[in-house]
Amino acid sequence: MDPMLILDLVIMVMERLSFVDFYRARCVSSVWYSASKSCRMRQANPWLVLFPADVLHLPLESIDDSCKLFDPIDNKSYTVRDLGSDILRTSCLASYNSWFLMLDRKTRFYLLNMLTRERIHLPSLDSMESTEGKKFKFKRNFDSSFTVTTFHYKDNVTLLSTCYGIGAAVLWVDERNKDYFVVWAFDRSLAYHKKGDDGWRVFRSSTNQSCVDMVFIESKLYVLIEDGSITSFDFSCGDSPMEFASFTPSPECCDFEHLAVTLSGQVLAISSEERHSYDIYKMDPKSSKWSIIKSLGDEALLLDQRITVPAKDGVLKNCLYCSYNDQFRRDDDYNLREDDNGICVVNQTNNEVQLFNHLTASSPLPFKDARWFIPTFGGK
């Protein structure tokens, strides 16, 4: 048979496969792998990952060190096994596509690809120092809480020892070359690390206020602080970030809780006065004033990843994909329950809410966290 005809037939078959089956089929042979590069694949739709809870009363042999994945389009569940027993006492702080920023019980950060199980270990927190000549010593307390001792490293004088929680975190990963950028907030400081750096660096904004949320796009970090304003930093100017803009919300705006960024690069601010009800604001770049928007257009918002995605191939138009509030993620004793109604898709057009309670109800073991993410296998 004509080799080109074989290749065309394989492409036709692969383009009809589900997301998971497509990536499995790439491993069949060199012909199938070559055919996969010519396929017009559908957009990857949002999936859910559920992280296992640490249940102390269960015997060791009953502890499951796996995560549950759920594809709502195909209505299929998958299990990622052998993630290590530390996954039970490890917190997920942020995600980017299939990559997750994890913090284990020994106060070690690492990046985890949930589909390939690849890990990238980040530097020890002992390597952290600020632009003000201070060093920090961290001792883990709970899921995402530390006792932080601050001192001048030159004369070893202790300045302060206080308990802080991680207020927010953001992750960016280049799928092809594994470049990455990580930022997380504690107290009124921001710690960041990027591929190639020796350790962590710490800086503060000129407002000297605590971070509520943040989003990162094209070397720029947008930080929502406690007074409701947004401060911007540019990381493309050298070793230290440059603060270049600050935006103050209009008096009529509600308290912002989250930031997000659209496909076009526009920054959004989100508030929620009641459960399953969200107000989305955009800023006029000319007047720097915020105004509420009624529709996301042909996009959907993944609140966990702080991004919008095209509303096609099963992704619901003008919807918010939501999971649990950050307050639950910081609570060691909190487990997801059937009646929480936290995992959902909220339609902004008609206020309809699609729930996914069955995912926790059908499991014999409890989960401590759930997040929406975009599945990828190392490249677009």
UniProtKB/TrEMBL annotation:
Residues 69-345 form the KIB1-4 beta-propeller domain. It comes from the Eukaryota. Pfam families: Beta-prop_KIB1-4, F-box. InterPro entries: F-box-like_dom_sf, F-box_BR-signaling, F-box_dom, KIB1-4_b-propeller. Residues 7-40 form the F-box domain. This is DUF295 domain-containing protein. It comes from Brassica carinata.
